[in-house]
């Protein structure tokens, strides 16, 4: 499995997931740069994602929804703030109310920093998410973000191998 470490720190207000992939950083980058590839790995296997908008560039917006096995849609967005190809990117990650992708202010918004570093065997990806309060971090932990994110990230290996 690609996920090798998961750390959450309520004092630092961060969740960090580390994964190792047997592919070069440029190839891992392409997973996130191509909306059709990203749809195959964003979200747990039983909640496939659909990216409605995808602009991986500073100031870009990425709107998506995940569909539950029962057909219920869960909406989210990324507001991209920084891109350094193929080393990584940063974005504000939020939950949206509905298909308008207006922010759902009752759920936490976070700052995500995804980095891809070359290793002897491929790429070490570090996914760090920062929250504005311990309550916000605890809320997403209680929602199952560690389990869901780990399942999603572990799907990347199959995509890289195909």
TrEMBL record:
- Residue ranges of domain Activator of Hsp90 ATPase homologue 1/2-like C-terminal in the record: 23-160
Which InterPro entries has this protein been placed in?
ASHA1/2-like_C, START-like_dom_sf
Q: What SUPFAM superfamilies does its record include?
A: Bet v1-like
Q: CDD domains attached here?
A: SRPBCC_CalC_Aha1-like
The lineage's top-level taxon is Bacteria
Against Pfam families, the record matches this protein to: AHSA1
Family indicated by similarity: Belongs to the AHA1 family.
Kindly provide the name given to this protein in its UniProt entry: SRPBCC domain-containing protein
Native source organism of the sequence:
Nocardioides zeicaulis
């Amino acid at each position: 499995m690609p996920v090798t470490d998961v750390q959450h720190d309520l004092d630092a207000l961060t969740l960090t997931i580390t994964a190792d992939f047997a592919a070069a950083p440029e190839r891992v980058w392409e997973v996130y740069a191509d909306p059709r590839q990203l749809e195959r790995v964003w979200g747990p296997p039983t909640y496939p994602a659909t990216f409605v908008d995808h602009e991986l560039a500073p100031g870009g917006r990425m709107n998506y929804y995940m569909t539950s096995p029962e057909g219920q849609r869960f909406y989210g967005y990324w507001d991209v703030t920084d891109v350094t190809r193929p080393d990584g990117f940063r974005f504000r990650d939020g939950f949206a109310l509905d298909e308008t992708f207006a922010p759902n202010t009752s759920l936490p918004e976070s700052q995500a920093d995804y980095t891809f570093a070359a290793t002897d065997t491929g790429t070490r990806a570090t996914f760090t998410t920062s929250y504005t309060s311990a309550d916000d971090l605890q809320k997403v932990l209680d929602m199952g973000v560690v389990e869901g994110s780990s399942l999603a990230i572990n799907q990347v290996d199959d995509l890289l191998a195909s």
